[in-house]
Every structure is written in structure tokens, then in C-alpha cells.
């Protein structure tokens, strides 16, 4: 849930306008959580789960998105929505984000060494992580595992780009030159304009789940989704629909020539060994 602190932050300039004791209490809780997160990294309590991205033509596996999980002792699996915002606020997201990329690359190397098909893995890069890293920094992590850069995709939000447009444009252009794929995540929910989308050196648009939700029955959502797909096609971008839960949604997307889907209909996020199982099945499929 969105906390008062973030709500205050979103109000931008007005955030220091008044003091409320709840905010001080919140700051203390965030500091404590930040300490827990740092300890969790040292204690190796973070895991990556992998959610399939599949072709809309035959639902065959075409990639995975790596999603972060925190296996806290006694508290079970904590979803990223409960700690990423705090990590973003404190800056811990930078070492944590480096760990995520490194771990996804390590897993990919393990899969390749085991003879699995080279299926690209996407990693989420937060706004602060992007602002604090160069394309070479990302490249160095990928190189550590001796991977072809084309097997790694970075997912960034429109917000991450807009926070520091000059830096983002520099990093994205360098990543593109290195052959590292970049997707715009949660597309349609940010404040980007079409004029800057044209300038963004990205490979993929991921249509946000909130639009997919209303498809096909809500006229506005259906219009927005089909328009994003048509626009992506015109800009030469790959397009992925997030949060596809129903067959009717997949049918609508296929009809409108969307490239890929990712959602509960075609696969929930799963631990690495279950993802390995899918890769092995793929190996057994006739070519
Ligand atoms: P996201 O990158 O947009 O990831 C997609 C989210 O939608 C995931 O939630 C996924 O489990 C969920 N999802 C996928 N298909 C469906 C569906 O059909 N229905 C519904 N209701 N949900 C679906 P998750 O894993 O809880 O992650 C939430 C967000 O946390 C991610 O949104 C991303 O912004 C952030 N996140 C996750 N892992 C990382 C990470 O390693 N680094 C950073 N910086 N952010 C991360
Ligand atoms: Mg994502
Ligand atoms: Mg998304
Ligand atoms: Mg989303």
C-alpha cells in the first residue's frame, strides 16, 4: 500500500510544507526496514522468481522476467511492492539492483551450461539504479558471466527515464550499441509524451496491466491497447502485454497483432527450478 510518505513525495514541492508526527514514525520504520534489507542481502534471503513471456501465436516460451522475492525468516515470502519503494528511497536499491542483475546472469549462465535453449531474461531496473549506473556498469555484470548481451533485457519505467532524461538517453543509447535490449515497463501509466518516445532507443513496450484488465469489454481500454500496439508496430518496437489472465484478453491481443503476453493465463512467476523445467520441455518440443 502507498504510504503517507510516498503520497507526500508525489505532491512534489509541497512535501516539506508541514510536519506530521506520523511521518517521523514512518521515517523510523523505513530506516529499520532498510537495515533488515541490508542484512537480508548479506544473509542471502533474496530470490528471483521467473515469469514466462510467451508468443501469442502458439504460446511457446520466448523469455522470462526475473521478479525479486524476499524470503524472510518467519515471515514467509515478502513481495517486492512491500520493500522496493523503501529500498528506492534509501538508496539500497542500487546494490540490490546490481545483485538482481548479477543473479539473473548467473542463472542464465547455469541454464546455458546445462544445454538449455537461450531464452532471454528481463530484469527490472529502478529509477535510482538507472540514475546511479552507466551502461558500462551494467555491461560489466553481464560480462562477468560471459553472456551474449542480447540475452539480457532491462525493464525501465517511463518515470525512470523522465527523472533524468539526459542521463537516461545516454545510458539507453550505449546499451543499444552494446546489444542489450531495453523495454519500457508499465507503458501508458507514466508521463511520457510521444515526441520523446520517438527519441528513446528502446526495443520493447510493455503495456501496463491496468489497460489489459478492461480488455476486451471496456471500450476505452480496448482502444488504448489496440492503439499502443499499432503505434509500437509503426515505431518498429516489440510489444508485450502484461497481466493477461483471461483467454478473451489473449484473443483480443492476438487479433491486434500483439507480439507477446505475460500473465497468469500463461504462467505465474516461479522459482528457478520450475523455470528450468519449462526450458527442458521446450528442448523436447519438435523443431
Ligand atoms: P512489474 O515489473 O510490472 O512486474 C509485473 C508484476 O505483475 C509482477 O508482480 C507479477 O507477479 C505481476 N503479474 C504478472 N502477471 C499477472 C497477472 O496476470 N495478474 C496479476 N494480477 N498480476 C500479474 P510482482 O512480482 O509483485 O512485482 C511488482 C513490481 O515490483 C514489478 O512490477 C516491479 O516494478 C517491481 N519489481 C519486482 N522485482 C524487481 C526487481 O528485481 N527490481 C526492481 N527494481 N523492481 C522489481
Ligand atoms: Mg517489469
Ligand atoms: Mg510492468
Ligand atoms: Mg506493472
TrEMBL record:
Specify the domain of life of the species encoding this protein.
Bacteria
Keyword Phosphoprotein present in the record's keywords: the answer is: no
Organism in which the protein naturally occurs: Azospirillum picis
Keyword hit for Transmembrane:
yes
Domain EAL residue range list: 30-283
What's the protein called, per UniProt?
Diguanylate cyclase (GGDEF)-like protein/PAS domain S-box-containing protein
What are the record keywords, sorted? Membrane, Transmembrane, Transmembrane helix
Amino acid at each position: 500500500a502507498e504510504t503517507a510518505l510516498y503520497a507526500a513525495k508525489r505532491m512534489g514541492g509541497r512535501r516539506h510544507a508541514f510536519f506530521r508526527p506520523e511521518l517521523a514514525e514512518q521515517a523510523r520504520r523505513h530506516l529499520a526496514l532498510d537495515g533488515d534489507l541490508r542484512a537480508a542481502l548479506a544473509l542471502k534471503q533474496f530470490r528471483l522468481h521467473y515469469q514466462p513471456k510467451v508468443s501469442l501465436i502458439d504460446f511457446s516460451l520466448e523469455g522470462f522476467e526475473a521478479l525479486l522475492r524476499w524470503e524472510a525468516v518467519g515471515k514467509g515470502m515478502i513481495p517486492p511492492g512491500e520493500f522496493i519503494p523503501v529500498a528506492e528511497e534509501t538508496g539500497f536499491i542500487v546494490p540490490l539492483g546490481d545483485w538482481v542483475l548479477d543473479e539473473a546472469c548467473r542463472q542464465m549462465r547455469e541454464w546455458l551450461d546445462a544445454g538449455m535453449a537461450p531464452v532471454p531474461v528481463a530484469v527490472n531496473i529502478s529509477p535510482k539504479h538507472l540514475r546511479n549506473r552507466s551502461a558500462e556498469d551494467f555491461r560489466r555484470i553481464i560480462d562477468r558471466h560471459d553472456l551474449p548481451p542480447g540475452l539480457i533485457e532491462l525493464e525501465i519505467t517511463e518515470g525512470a527515464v523522465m527523472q533524468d532524461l539526459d542521463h537516461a538517453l545516454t545510458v539507453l543509447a550505449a546499451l543499444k550499441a552494446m546489444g542489450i535490449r531495453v523495454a519500457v515497463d508499465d507503458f501508458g501509466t507514466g508521463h511520457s509524451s510521444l515526441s520523446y518516445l520517438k527519441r528513446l532507443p528502446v526495443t520493447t513496450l510493455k503495456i501496463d496491466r491496468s489497460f489489459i484488465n478492461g480488455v476486451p469489454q471496456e471500450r476505452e481500454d480496448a482502444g488504448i491497447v489496440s492503439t499502443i500496439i499499432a503505434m509500437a508496430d509503426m515505431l518498429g518496437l516489440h510489444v508485450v502485454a502484461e497481466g493477461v489472465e483471461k483467454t478473451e484478453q489473449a484473443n483480443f491481443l492476438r487479433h491486434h497483432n500483439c507480439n507477446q503476453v505475460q500473465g497468469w493465463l500463461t504462467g505465474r512467476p516461479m522459482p528457478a527450478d520450475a523455470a528450468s523445467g519449462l526450458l527442458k520441455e521446450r528442448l523436447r518440443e519438435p523443431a
